Inverse folding.
């Protein structure tokens, strides 16, 4: 049959021609996306006028007619006649929006804790670092103690002091590990063994060397932290964005583990456990957060022994954690359902027991599927944290509201709310964009071949 | 496999070409953005003619037949279908689509309607056919594609081959005079391909004008009046199946045939 | 091996460890531990609670429900006086919650559909506008939006003397929104009957048109004819009986408006905030639902000769609804739940009048919190039952 011979017609493809000019480039794009027909063009014109109007109004209000320096809202109004923003009030109150009534001279403690957390978690994004679990777990488990001590100040109990020292030692470990990796050691462990000269001695000694190093670090940290003299700042003085982040941060970091436990309980084959978990989840998902907060503040003190009088902030945080766990449980359940039954069967066929199957095979896959929903839930939780203002905690929203009810700035409502809205928008929008990025980079590994 | 085994025991069915032109493309050009997907296509199709279009993926063959019922818009050149010019006039587009049926690679049955409802939807709402009449016609067609017993089921309950036969019946229900097939068997398991091809052969025997994009060379050999080979957006070669398979003119065609028939 | 060991002494002296390794024993054991733990915690809480109640000299039980509430409520739908009982307060709160939620749900759904469809527009600018609308509203807290509308918009409106008016019928000022109240006169019953008749007639026409189309194939413009009947018949009857409906217009008397129907600024702010905030989420549900119908469906319909309008009506919408309705319904549930934020601006919803004011007055924290939770749980249960029913109804049949 067909064999290539000399008298074949040789196929020479015609050259590709550029498309007609009105279908590509700026003109083509405009024709296709903005002026596809008479109705389309009308819509575009309406849209452009709308945007121009909004942008112009915002410019007039926020920049052209705005007042940047004034001592009272009256002064602002005298200048703007109500047509411009009074950013002077916002900048005067800025400290309150950020820290509430946290004493000025002590605010460095809040900043320090923030910087420590950022530095602690930074190795997450370093490409070379392997022990990311160590980074995450150490921060989630011990940073809260360090932060609590920094925020609260005053006399810390022995337990808190020990945990603070542990936190500091782990922090040092994380960064020494980073240093070791960049100096060319496979890990901090190897680096320590090599530097101490124990690498080639008996394996059973390695453990003691590492423990000894950790112990030395711990003693130094404990001695150092016992020299601290931090003035006590009661939780009543906490406020602003700082308080918002404390509450939502604890809620967010507790939500995933407790949500996973509840979800596994709900999918359990044991009826008693299943019923309890289902009831818990459904109860707290079906009522508004504000009723849970009220419940925490009014009913929880009744539930506890007479002599205990818990801090309001603690009650609120407990309520937020319960709420977040119930919602997260349903997300985790959805993620688990999305995992192919074959994965369970394969894991069992390999001889993994329940917990190994869950932690090694199922959860890593399910978590990737759930990333968008988890981050969406975190965003929701951050926004819902504002509800604590209703029961009188001075979070950023209540500070914004309060700033317009103060004598000097009486009547200033729009500006603080716009500022607060901008803060939330930036944080939440970045979180959702980052989750979409994660979804593409991590989650994308499955669909493609 | 060789061509001899392909056509063993299968006669080429009699052709029924008249000299009436039903589709005429002249100098048709199309771009996807900057990509020149159809280059100066000229094609004339006569009533009753059966054309098989083949070519490597990305050669523009699907785009070509999708331009014929304006699922794709061409940018230059003229397309005439049943004497109606394809332009931006909605009435013309409606008229063309009513008389041109199309079968898709992925079936595209309506999952929320039963098999019977899939077949009666367009006759009832486009041709204003009474329901009883539409039902009767649809049942006839379902018998013709050999699945009358599935009429009350939903598409999701059928196998791929059955779904594709329903899709053919659904198109025929509009009583079209031209049928377009866009790789109708590519999404099917091997054992289901023949049940769909059988239906298509039956359709060819009834004298339908057909344009079929497919890689089923046995079908082309048996049914086609003309085989068109496309590459890089142009028609490289067209000929009767006998000439096309046994005596291809272009080196590009030979390369393609050797690849597709190599195993 | 099992065969060899049968009856051997080792079998009798099965150790405890072996027994504990039995799957069934483990299961019972775990469940028993959990049950005991839960019961212990419950008992602990119960003992503490009764001690607490005793120490504070408080009683428990639902007797307080018949007691006089003694406080006034700023705005109610149900008639209410300060002398009414706590149970009445509960009902008043429920109705106030439901009314603002229902109105918000209707408007939010409409707005959500509009924004969701705009988001899918082929016009780049329109879809970008809708996208930013959704992003801005979804990424700022609802409570902030509520406070913004209340404090920065509705509270800054002019006093009644300078209120914004529309056609001298609708007025908006810092005391609220005023509309004319319809006052039916003698013979207005006929118009009401006509409305019912018109609804029945429209239904009949739709059935007839469907039947005729099935029989003869002819299509009928049911929509326009129905619209005509629906409005035409009542208007005709209304005019024929001598227009027996007057309106009680709100009018400025002294420092405030009198007459008409009015809603307070808190209602307006809450309604607007709920509606706009949730419309963003609903827009996303609509968008995702429509996108879930593959483009092949449109192509198949077009290739059969269906025009775009019919394709939308017969092919796309029936399929998209399956994907849109479930998230839509859970959004409705969220509107009901989020209406509880009313408490922040003083709109007297269930949480504000019952969980706050009544609780502070009567001290029956447990009973009141339980009753409020019961309400929200029954709403949630009703809605999820409706959702399950719908899902069963539309579930696509697959192999």
């Amino acid at each position: 049959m067909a064999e290539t011979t000399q008298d074949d017609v040789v196929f020479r493809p015609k050259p590709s021609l550029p498309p007609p000019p009105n279908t590509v480039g700026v003109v083509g794009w405009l024709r296709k996306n903005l002026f596809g027909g008479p109705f389309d063009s009308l819509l575009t014109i309406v849209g452009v006028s709308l945007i121009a109007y909004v942008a112009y109004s915002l410019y007039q209000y926020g920049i052209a007619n705005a007042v940047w320096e004034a001592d009272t809202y009256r002064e602002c109004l005298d200048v703007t006649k109500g047509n411009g923003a009074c950013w002077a009030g916002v900048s005067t109150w800025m400290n309150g929006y950020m820290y509430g009534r946290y004493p000025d001279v002590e605010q460095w403690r809040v900043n320090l804790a923030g910087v420590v957390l950022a530095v602690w978690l930074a190795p997450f994004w370093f490409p070379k670092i392997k022990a990311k679990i160590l980074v995450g777990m150490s921060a989630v488990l011990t940073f809260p103690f360090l932060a609590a001590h920094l925020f609260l100040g005053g006399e810390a109990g022995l337990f808190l002091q020990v945990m603070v020292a542990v936190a500091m030692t782990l922090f040092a470990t994380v960064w020494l590990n980073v240093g070791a990796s960049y100096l060319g050691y496979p890990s901090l462990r190897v680096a320590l063994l090599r530097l101490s000269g124990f690498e080639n001695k008996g394996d059973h000694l390695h453990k003691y060397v590492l423990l000894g190093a950790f112990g030395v670090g711990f003693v130094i940290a404990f001695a150092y932290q016992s020299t601290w003299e931090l003035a006590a700042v009661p939780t009543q003085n906490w406020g602003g964005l700082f308080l918002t982040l404390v509450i939502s941060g604890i809620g967010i970091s507790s939500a995933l583990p407790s949500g996973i436990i509840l979800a596994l309980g709900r999918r359990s084959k044991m009826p008693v456990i299943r019923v309890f978990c289902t009831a818990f989840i459904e109860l707290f998902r079906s009522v508004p957060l504000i009723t849970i907060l009220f419940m925490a503040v009014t009913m929880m003190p009744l539930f506890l022994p007479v002599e205990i009088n818990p801090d309001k902030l603690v009650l609120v945080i407990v309520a937020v954690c319960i709420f977040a766990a119930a919602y997260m449980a349903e997300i985790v359940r959805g993620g688990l359902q999305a995992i192919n039954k074959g994965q369970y069967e394969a894991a069992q066929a390999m001889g993994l027991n329940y917990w190994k199957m869950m932690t090694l095979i199922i959860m890593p896959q399910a978590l990737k599927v759930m990333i968008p929903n988890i981050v969406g839930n975190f965003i929701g939780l951050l926004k819902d944290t504002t509800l604590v203002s209703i029961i009188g905690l001075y979070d950023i929203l209540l500070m914004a509201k309060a700033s317009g009810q103060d004598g000097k700035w009486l009547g200033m409502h729009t500006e603080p709310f716009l500022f607060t809205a901008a803060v939330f928008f930036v944080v939440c929008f970045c979180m959702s964009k980052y989750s979409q990025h994660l979804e593409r980079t991590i989650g994308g590994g499955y669909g493609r071949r | 496999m060789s061509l001899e085994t392909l056509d063993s025991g299968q006669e080429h069915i009699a052709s029924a070409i008249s000299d009436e032109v039903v589709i005429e493309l002249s100098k048709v050009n199309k771009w996807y953005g900057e990509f020149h997907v159809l280059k100066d296509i000229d094609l004339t199709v006569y009533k009753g003619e059966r054309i098989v279009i083949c070519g490597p993926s990305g050669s523009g063959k699907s785009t070509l037949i999708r331009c014929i019922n304006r699922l794709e818009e061409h940018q230059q050149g003229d397309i005439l279908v049943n004497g109606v010019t394809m332009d931006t006039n909605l009435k013309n587009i409606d008229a063309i689509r009513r008389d041109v049926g199309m079968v898709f690679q992925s079936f595209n049955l309506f999952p929320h309607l039963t098999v019977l409802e899939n077949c009666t939807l367009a006759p009832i709402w486009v041709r204003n056919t009474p329901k009883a009449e539409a039902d009767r016609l649809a049942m006839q067609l379902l018998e013709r594609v050999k699945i009358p017993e599935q009429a009350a089921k939903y598409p999701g309950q059928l196998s791929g081959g059955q779904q594709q036969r329903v899709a053919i019946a659904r198109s025929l229900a509009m009583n079209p005079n031209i049928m377009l097939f866009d790789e109708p068997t590519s999404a099917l398991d091997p054992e289901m391909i023949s049940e769909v091809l059988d239906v298509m052969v039956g359709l060819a025997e009834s004298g339908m004008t057909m344009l079929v994009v497919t890689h089923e060379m046995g079908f082309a050999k048996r049914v086609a009046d003309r085989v068109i080979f496309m590459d890089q957006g142009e028609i490289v070669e067209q000929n009767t199946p006998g000439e096309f398979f046994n005596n291809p003119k272009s080196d590009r065609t030979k390369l393609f045939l050797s690849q597709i028939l190599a195993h | 091996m099992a065969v060899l060991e049968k009856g051997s002494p080792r079998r009798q002296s099965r150790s405890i460890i072996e027994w504990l390794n039995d799957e069934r024993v483990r299961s019972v054991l775990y469940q028993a531990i959990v049950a005991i733990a839960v019961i212990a915690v419950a008992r602990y809480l119960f003992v503490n609670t009764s001690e607490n109640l005793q120490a504070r000299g408080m009683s428990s039980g639902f007797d307080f429900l018949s007691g006089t509430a003694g406080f006034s409520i700023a705005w109610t739908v149900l008639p209410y006086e300060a002398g009414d009982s706590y149970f009445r307060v509960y009902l008043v709160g429920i109705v106030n919650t439901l009314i603002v939620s229902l109105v918000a749900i209707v408007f939010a759904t409409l707005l959500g559909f509009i924004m969701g469809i705009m988001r899918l527009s082929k016009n780049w600018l329109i879809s970008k506008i809708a996208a930013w609308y959704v992003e801005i509203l979804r990424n700022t807290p609802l409570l902030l939006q509520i406070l913004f509308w209340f404090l920065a918009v509705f509270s800054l409106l002019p006093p009644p003397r300078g209120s914004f008016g529309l056609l001298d019928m609708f007025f908006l000022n810092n005391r609220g929104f005023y509309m004319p109240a319809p006052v039916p006169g003698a013979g207005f019953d006929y118009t009401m009957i006509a409305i019912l008749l018109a609804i029945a007639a429209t239904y009949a026409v739709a059935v007839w048109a469907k039947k005729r189309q099935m029989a003869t194939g002819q299509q009928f413009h049911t929509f326009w004819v129905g619209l005509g009947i629906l409005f035409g018949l009542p208007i005709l009857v209304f005019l024929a009986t001598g227009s027996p409906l007057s309106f009680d217009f709100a009018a400025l008397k002294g420092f405030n408006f009198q007459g008409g129907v009015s809603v307070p600024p808190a209602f307006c702010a809450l309604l607007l905030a709920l509606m706009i905030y949730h419309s963003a989420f609903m827009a996303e549900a609509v968008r995702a639902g429509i996108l879930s119908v593959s483009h092949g469906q449109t192509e198949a319909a077009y290739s059969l000769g269906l025009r775009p309008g019919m394709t939308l009506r017969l092919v796309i919408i029936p399929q998209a609804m399956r994907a849109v309705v479930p998230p839509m319904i859970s959004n409705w549930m969220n509107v009901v739940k989020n209406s509880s934020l009313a408490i922040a601006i003083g709109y007297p919803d269930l949480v504000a009048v019952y969980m706050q004011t009544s609780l502070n007055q009567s001290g029956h924290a447990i009973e009141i919190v339980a009753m409020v939770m019961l309400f929200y749980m029954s709403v949630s249960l009703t809605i999820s039952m409706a959702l399950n029913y719908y899902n069963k109804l539309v579930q696509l049949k697959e192999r």
Notes: Confidence is low (pLDDT under 50) at residues 1-9 of chain B. The interface with chain C takes residues 69-71, 90, 94, 97-98, 100-102, 104, 106, 108-112, 121-122, 124-134, 153-154, 156-158, 167, 170-171, 174, 180 of chain B (CB under 8 Å). The radius of gyration of chain B is 18 Å.
